[in-house]
Write a structure and sequence with these properties.
The protein is built from 9 helices and 8 strands. By secondary structure, it is an alpha/beta fold. The strands form 2 sheets. Strands 2-1-3-4 form a 4-stranded parallel sheet, with helices on both faces.
Length: about 280
């Protein structure tokens, strides 16, 4: 007979997430909470944009069919009461995940809560701007794309100088960022240096740091051969080429060796703002 004393079993349970908005907040809170409990496997049911009694009726039928825990972010008083009453009647716990935070903020600020569905996801111009910037960054990653005149920022750098993550972070801040790799014997599109709009920034790092990151990258791909990609001399030549290019075109550069992505992005944003102020 097999020994089952060391076998582990997952606890499966239904989690119903009811939101009058997109439900992203609920999903993040639920997953972060469940992650604290080993051996659990939540069966997720997400109901987004629930803003009418008819929609809530359908949700309640689903909850009753698959009993579990209910988490919700619903601001409409009648819909909340409908959900809470039904859950209480059938003995299912219902958690208003934002209520403690909202109550504390309201007390501290001395301001009542604005009962607006999806207020945290207000689809204003700033929100759409961030989405547009993210799409732009993805389309102009690692030398892809061609509409560099539409960029706010263009990042240059040899491989493994954090160009992509910095571009994505800048996009989340609402800035259109393109990035172009500096590869030996590969021409950089020279017309970018004649553009008036974008701020062009060169990224660099110590050779030791670049080699370390590249070796780790190759190991993750189960590749351990020594190539020019991780050769100390070759990497130093790449970095020297990049620095000469920056100097030739009078580009500002940032050493990212000991900088976080956030710090690098903050410095770039400051450069952009300084140029705007001079203009």
């Amino acid at each position: 007979m097999a020994d089952t004393s060391t076998q582990s079993f997952e606890t499966c349970f239904h989690v119903h997430m009811v939101s009058d908005s997109t439900g992203e907040t609920l999903m993040e809170v639920m997953r972060a909470s469940v992650a604290q409990f080993e051996g659990t496997n939540p069966l997720e049911h997400l109901y987004a944009l629930v803003r009418s009694t008819r929609q809530m009726d359908r949700v309640l039928k689903e909850i009753e069919s698959y009993p579990g825990i209910v988490m919700y972010t619903v601001v409409n008083t009648e819909l909340r009461r409908q959900l809470e009453t039904h859950c209480a009647n059938i003995g299912i716990p219902a958690i208003a995940v934002l209520d403690p935070m909202l109550a504390t903020l309201s007390s501290y600020l001395g301001t009542p809560v604005a009962s607006r569905a999806g207020a945290q996801r207000g689809l204003d111009a700033e929100y759409y701007g961030r989405i547009d910037a993210l799409n732009y960054a993805m389309a102009h990653d690692d030398g892809a794309g061609e509409h560099y005149e539409m960029a706010d920022i263009i990042l240059l750098g040899v491989s493994r100088t954090s160009k992509t993550p910095t571009s994505i972070y800048l996009a989340h801040r609402g800035y259109r960022a393109a990035n172009i790799p500096l590869v030996p014997n590969v021409e950089v599109p020279t017309h970018i240096f004649d553009l008036d709009g974008p701020v062009i920034v060169g990224l660099t790092a110590s050779p030791e740091r670049i080699v370390q990151i590249r070796r780790n990258r190759l190991l993750s791909l189960h590749e351990d051969r020594d190539t020019e990609y991780v050769d100390d001399f070759s990497v130093r030549e790449e970095i020297l080429y990049a620095k000469r290019l920056y100097a030739k075109h009078g580009l500002p550069s940032i050493d990212v060796t000991r900088r976080s992505i956030e710090e690098t992005a903050a410095k770039i944003i400051n450069m952009l703002n300084e140029r705007k102020n001079r203009s």
